[in-house]
């Protein structure tokens, strides 16, 4: 049974302007899918619908077979771990930020939770220790360090679905590729959906959906999409 289904979803913010024009796709359990498309294509709108900031005008969104119109935002948040482009961290230590929500903030708590979630390789590649203060909004860290902490904070909760919404798009490509490599090691069997505007960000996805003006323009693997150009 697919983990995530968009079934003919029609949606717009204003009554006279449709943004998603009957969008359909299915992400199988354990699948690593990606959505690319130019700015304004409707990528973030998909994320907003997934968390029920809005409901579709028409069509259905299903998670693990259940239509989400009957699901609270709170339980959606427990089911889908999202990492946005500009994560806001708590003005505390790295350990506190990662342990937050898992009932503990000591190094031992974080390591135990990381072991449970099978993400130790990601935690071990954090460039700074758990005791490091992140500062106001995480400003004492570099952009890459901040996003690593934000991704770790989400992974440690072991959400059934991981949603990366331009999570590495603001970083230089070397930092991005470094994070993605480590992420891949701990996400082999995790259902994930990565939203990005650069094809290189999501080159490793099982399947890439190309969104254009709220419609699926093409889909395939990275290799298939490149050879179609
Ligand atoms: P498309 O350009 O893809 O045909 P439309 O703008 O015709 O998209 O809208 C598709 C469907 O969305 C229509 O059949 C209509 O029933 C529904 N729809 C359009 N606007 C609204 C709205 N403001 N509220 C609810 N449903 C709407
Ligand atoms: P993307 O993430 O692909 O850049 P978005 O999903 O953010 O695209 O936006 C798709 C379209 O919806 C854009 O034309 C944008 O201007 C419009 N849009 C986004 N948010 C709103 C909103 N809150 N109210 C009205 N229009 C919006």
UniProtKB/TrEMBL annotation:
Subcellular location: Cell membrane
Domain ABC transporter: start-end pairs: 4-229
Protein name according to UniProt: ABC transporter ATP-binding protein/permease
Organism this protein belongs to: Qipengyuania marisflavi
First-to-last residue of the parent protein present: 355 to 583 of 606
């Amino acid at each position: 049974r697919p983990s995530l289904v968009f079934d003919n979803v029609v949606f717009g913010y204003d009554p006279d302007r449709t943004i998603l024009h009957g969008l359909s796709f299915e992400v199988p359990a354990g699948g690593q899918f990606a959505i690319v498309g130019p700015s304004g294509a409707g990528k973030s709108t998909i994320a907003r619908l997934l968390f029920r900031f809005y409901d579709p005008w028409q069509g259905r969104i299903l998670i693990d077979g259940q239509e989400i119109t009957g699901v609270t935002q709170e339980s959606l948040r427990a089911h889908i771990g999202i990492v946005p482009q500009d994560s806001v961290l708590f003005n505390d230590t790295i350990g506190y930020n990662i342990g937050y929500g898992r009932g503990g903030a000591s190094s031992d708590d974080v390591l135990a939770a990381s072991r449970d979630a099978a993400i130790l390789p990601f935690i071990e590649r954090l460039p700074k220790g758990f005791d490091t203060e992140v500062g106001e909004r995480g400003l004492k860290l570099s952009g890459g360090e901040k996003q690593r902490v934000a991704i770790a904070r989400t992974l440690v909760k072991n959400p059934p679905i991981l949603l990366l919404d331009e999570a590495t798009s603001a970083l230089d490509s070397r930092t991005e590729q470094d994070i993605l490599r480590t992420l891949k090691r701990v996400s082999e069997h995790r259902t994930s959906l990565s939203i990005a505007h650069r094809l290189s960000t999501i080159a490793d996805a099982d399947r890439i959906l190309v969104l254009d003006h709220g419609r699926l323009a093409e889909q395939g693997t990275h290799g298939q999409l490149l050879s179609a150009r």
